[in-house]
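stage 2 :: seqdesign
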């Protein structure tokens, strides 16, 4: 019994010693000139997060902020022995109303402070896909929402492209079984299957149940002419897959680039990470 009491006492003493030593180190660090300087200027390097904008059942994505990680920055500078803002280490601060908490909302825009645009084509048939493959540079960062049967029929062709592939259900409709099958094929062969798209097919409920976001972009029938009216207001563009839009696609790309926008995947466009 005495041995047990001695052991408990010894363990308690050791724990207290560690605790006391750590507190002493904390006090010493707080008085260090490097730590004092870091705390003096840290707010100068802070970037506030931008909260997502929610209106009824729609959402526009926010962006993370950042702040100085005081302890890591201190340890980083302590190694060189001087204060130097180039050795700051930052941590990102997430916005309120994050995307991951809002699967039940339609995404209608990425945050417009990013100079990104995502271009989407909906592929309902092999002919739709051939129209894209034969006339658009495979290196363009397109987002294709593809019918499940078309996807299966054209895997090898799609693997040769730089396109981002997402499910368009089957026959333009989503259900749990088809979505799981599509996602399995997409994630084995292409990219994360993060998104559905709404086009009069009630995608939101099915996709939110599967922890996927539903896109509701702006549809352009005459893409090259209409882009000029929306480029500063909308950055998720769904292009009608017809002869005229495909023929004028290079002009569309050139116009977008001339306005300082970069054509990006939906995943990058909608990321809440700082650019």
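stage 2 :: out
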């Amino acid at each position: 019994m005495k041995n047990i009491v001695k052991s408990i006492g010894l363990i308690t003493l050791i724990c207290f010693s560690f605790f006391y030593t750590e507190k002493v180190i904390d006090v010493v660090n707080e008085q260090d000139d490097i730590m004092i300087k870091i705390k003096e200027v840290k707010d100068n390097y802070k970037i506030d997060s931008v909260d997502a904008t929610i209106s009824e059942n729609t959402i526009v994505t926010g962006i993370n902020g950042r702040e100085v990680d005081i302890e890591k920055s201190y340890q980083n500078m302590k190694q060189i022995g001087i204060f130097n803002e180039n050795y700051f280490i930052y941590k990102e601060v997430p916005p309120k109303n994050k995307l991951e908490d809002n699967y039940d909302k339609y995404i209608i825009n990425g945050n417009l402070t990013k100079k990104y645009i995502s271009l989407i084509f909906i592929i309902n048939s092999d002919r739709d896909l051939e129209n894209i493959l034969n006339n658009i540079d495979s290196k363009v960062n397109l987002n294709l929402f593809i019918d499940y049967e078309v996807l299966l029929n054209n895997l090898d062709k799609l693997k040769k492209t730089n396109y981002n592939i997402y499910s368009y259900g089957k026959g333009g409709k989503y259900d749990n079984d088809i979505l799981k099958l599509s996602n399995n094929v997409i994630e084995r062969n292409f990219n994360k299957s993060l998104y559905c798209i709404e086009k009069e097919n009630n995608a939101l409920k099915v996709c939110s149940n599967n922890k996927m976001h539903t896109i509701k972009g702006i549809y352009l029938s005459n893409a090259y002419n209409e882009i000029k009216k929306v480029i500063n207001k909308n950055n998720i563009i769904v292009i009608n897959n017809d002869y005229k839009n495909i023929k004028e696609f290079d002009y569309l790309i050139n116009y977008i680039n001339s306005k300082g926008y970069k054509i990006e995947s939906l995943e990058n466009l909608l990321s809440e990470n700082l650019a």
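stage 3 :: structure notes
- Residues 2-28 have pLDDT under 50 and may be disordered.
- Residues 2-30 form the longest helix (29 residues).
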